[in-house]
Design a protein that fits this description.
With 251 residues, the protein is an alpha/beta fold. It contains nine helices and 14 strands. The protein is 26% helix and 27% strand. The strands form two sheets. The protein has a seven-stranded mixed β-sheet with strand order 6-5-4-3-2-1-14. The chain is globular and about 45 Å long. The relative contact order is 0.16.
């Protein structure tokens, strides 16, 4: 199994998970034109994408999903609450239910409920059936629940949100209402929350850590990188950014 990102942050997210001839796209917050430009370097044709898995309806994740799925006849898998919010009438829609795994080729996908200010937000764990490897994706989460700790323990790879530095958010340019939203219990994970999360989960098998959904206004990739490197028990991170994302990482 391998993972790549076309870009990560509040101006658009799209992540690829692939194993053999199965290609899954998690979210697409980019316009069709930008998506095609960004997809180019991965040498994937859009009509070879087997499914789009949509985490929630916020524009940085869903903004480019409708046109992509319609133009290339890609099935859309998402929670019913998210489907209602993005008005997917006419699409090849398949319902995701938290806690109910579904299988694409040799990849089993487990949707996990997270606290975020959307209708029915989900994040995912990917299990490669033929070798047992597990990859988790966790962004757009306001706080860490016991359920999330249990679900995301004992992974081989983890893409984790490091959204904001608390001091930068407080003193930064966002209006007060947006600061409250981002920093609230249904907003995003701060650097400290994500570090605390890494201390709570079992990371003994973790060989790949990707820091993602890093705010360009309230955080820096350098801060995130140096904070994670202070933890002895986790590998040095790959840090995803808005423009490039990151290239294929094999798990
Ligand atoms: Zn987001
Ligand atoms: Zn969101």
């Amino acid at each position: 199994m391998r993972i790549a990102s076309l870009g990560s942050g509040s101006r658009g997210n799209a992540t690829l998970v692939q194993h053999r001839d199965t290609t899954l796209l998690i979210d697409n917050g980019f316009s069709l034109r930008k998506f095609m430009q960004r997809l180019d370097r991965f040498e994937i044709e859009p009509d070879s994408i087997d499914a789009v898995l949509l985490t929630h309806e916020h524009g940085d994740h869903s903004g480019g999903v409708a046109r992509l799925c319609a133009n290339y006849s890609i099935p859309l898998w998402t929670a019913v609450g998210t489907a209602r919010a993005v008005l997917i009438a006419g699409f090849d829609y398949h319902r995701l239910v938290a806690g109910q795994a579904i299988t694409f080729g040799q990849i089993e996908v487990l949707p996990v409920t997270v606290p975020h200010d959307a209708n029915e937000p989900l994040q995912f764990i990917f299990h490669q059936i033929d070798n047992g490897k597990r990859l988790g994706i966790l962004t757009d989460t306001g706080h860490v629940t016991r359920h999330i700790v249990d679900a995301f323990s004992c992974l081989d790879a983890l893409l984790l949100e490091f959204n904001y530095d608390a001091e930068m958010l407080t003193s930064g340019p966002y209006p007060e209402s947006l600061k409250q939203r981002v920093g609230g219990s249904h907003g995003h994970l701060s650097n400290q929350q994500s570090l605390e999360f890494l201390r709570r989960i079992d990371t003994s098998s973790l060989s790949c850590l990707i820091a993602a959904h890093i705010s360009e206004k309230n955080n820096t990739t350098a801060i995130v990188d140096s904070l994670i490197r202070q933890l002895d028990e986790v590998p040095a991170p790959v840090v995803a950014d808005q423009e490039i994302g990151f290239d294929w990482i094999s798990i």
